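[Discussion] Sanity-checking designs against the backbone

I'm trying to build intuition for which residues belong where. Below is a structure token string of 210 positions. I'd appreciate it if someone posts a full sequence so I can compare it with mine line by line.
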């Protein structure tokens, strides 16, 4: 797989996650070894990774995620509520919302759940937090790319953060470590993935000035 193919076909996999096929722990470790090569502010490398494969823990996390998704869907700001005045985009948004709902009901059944976390000595900084999360999120994306290259499907999710403290207690995560992303990880069904339709570059590109 070429770099461009890898980057353009690493999709959010929800309905096509294989919930019945175990994922070897060593394969997840390989992906995390790749993730550790990502950049971090001041080379601090303050990230931590909680890999959850225990069925009861996955079930508990899945329960929190399902509750959070229910509130999100009822909020009026969910994916399915966006771009309703644009028929083409509205249809896509409805499909995204349907697949997200499917995953919310099955998050606890996904073979491996990976939580990307970061140390926050002294708590979250006031104001702009781009530097903090910019020291975790590239590594999480690298994990997802490495998983794709090894035949695994993933999805970027964060709705579990509505219950971050409950999940931290469940998993024994220290108070000075904050969660940033929950990545369900499994083999996927079907053959491969295609690039997604996106807005034309010229609609979002600004040269020198806005």
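Best answer:
Here's mine. Compare freely.
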């Amino acid at each position: 797989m070429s770099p461009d193919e890898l980057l353009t076909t690493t999709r959010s996999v929800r309905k096509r996650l294989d919930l019945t096929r175990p994922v070897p722990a060593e394969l997840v470790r390989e992906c995390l070894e790749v993730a550790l090569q990502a950049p971090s502010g001041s080379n601090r490398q303050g990230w931590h990774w909680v890999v959850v494969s225990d069925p009861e823990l996955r079930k508990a996390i899945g329960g929190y995620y399902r509750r959070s998704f229910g509130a999100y869907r009822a909020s009026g700001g969910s994916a399915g509520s966006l771009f309703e005045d644009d028929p083409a985009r509205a249809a896509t948004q409805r499909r995204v919302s349907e697949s997200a709902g499917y995953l919310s009901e099955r998050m606890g059944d996904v073979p491996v759940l990976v939580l990307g976390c970061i140390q926050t000595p002294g708590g979250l900084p006031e104001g702009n937090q781009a530097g903090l999360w910019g020291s975790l999120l590239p590594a999480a994306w690298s994990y997802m790319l490495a998983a794709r290259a090894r035949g695994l499907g993933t999805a970027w999710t964060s709705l579990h953060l509505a219950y971050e403290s409950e999940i931290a207690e469940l998993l024994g995560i220290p108070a000075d470590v904050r969660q940033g992303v929950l990545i369900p990880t499994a083999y996927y069904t079907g053959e491969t993935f295609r690039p997604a339709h996106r807005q034309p570059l010229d609609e979002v590109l600004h040269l020198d000035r806005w």
